[in-house]
């Protein structure tokens, strides 16, 4: 019998598949950390997680049973991959299931920021009819810079085109021909697009190359009044630089779904004028969660039962 541990909330459709899989038994154990997590992992053949649990080198010390961890989602940054490799644990993810939901959330943030949806709603909650205060800006005709033209970046770009935006894209892996076919003007560096964009959205993992991709020197180059969106990973924009950019008026707005430290319930950015924030909701739709759960269970059971 292959034993599977589910370490974060997983959609019921995924749990049903685990229950139906012959030769597999599973347990859901949420909120584990430290020694409790290490001991639990040592008793299972496979694990499924989202981003709530942190698999550190210590979590895998002495491992002799666990063979695979599947992240129900895209980013595997909560799993220490070198330590997993050393412990003989394969790390997998479900790269496709979240794409549309995350892209829609990036667009939602961009529109909410442009039309002051969050503060205007708050004004009504507090009994004010602030029609004059919340003059917005239209996105049609504006230029959106998209950094990273993978699945999510492309889904954002095609949706933004439907909103009649012009798209500048940066992605070292995309050819000029493919970009032109998609109606995207490809640039050679992120710096190159900064003076020309009204909006910027990033769709890359957080790596040594993308950490602080937008920092004070980039804000010097950016078009005055630009608005920035991040529904990818905290840290791609330097949070202190965002605060300074907003204070100086160089940035007209910032919309964030992700933060350097998560969960994040206290940030100087919260409540600043022009800022709209959500608590890492990019993949939080029923559709995305069902899809990533089903994909994760399929990957893990195939691996454990069929070795693929
Ligand atoms: C992902 O990496 O899949 C998304 O950020 C959503 C999540 O963390 O659940």
UniProtKB/TrEMBL annotation:
It is an enzyme of class 1 (oxidoreductase). The keyword DNA-binding does not apply. It comes from the Bacteria. Signal peptide: none annotated. Pathway: Amino-acid biosynthesis; L-serine biosynthesis; L-serine from 3-phospho-D-glycerate: step 1/3. It catalyses: (R)-2-hydroxyglutarate + NAD(+) = 2-oxoglutarate + NADH + H(+); (2R)-3-phosphoglycerate + NAD(+) = 3-phosphooxypyruvate + NADH + H(+). GO terms for biological process: L-serine biosynthetic process. Its EC number is 1.1.1.95. The keyword Cytoplasm does not apply. Keywords: Amino-acid biosynthesis, NAD, Oxidoreductase, Serine biosynthesis. Catalyzes the reversible oxidation of 3-phospho-D-glycerate to 3-phosphonooxypyruvate, the first step of the phosphorylated L-serine biosynthesis pathway. Also catalyzes the reversible oxidation of 2-hydroxyglutarate to 2-oxoglutarate. Belongs to the D-isomer specific 2-hydroxyacid dehydrogenase family. This is D-3-phosphoglycerate dehydrogenase. It comes from Adhaeretor mobilis. The lineage of its organism: Bacteria, Pseudomonadati, Planctomycetota, Planctomycetia, Pirellulales.
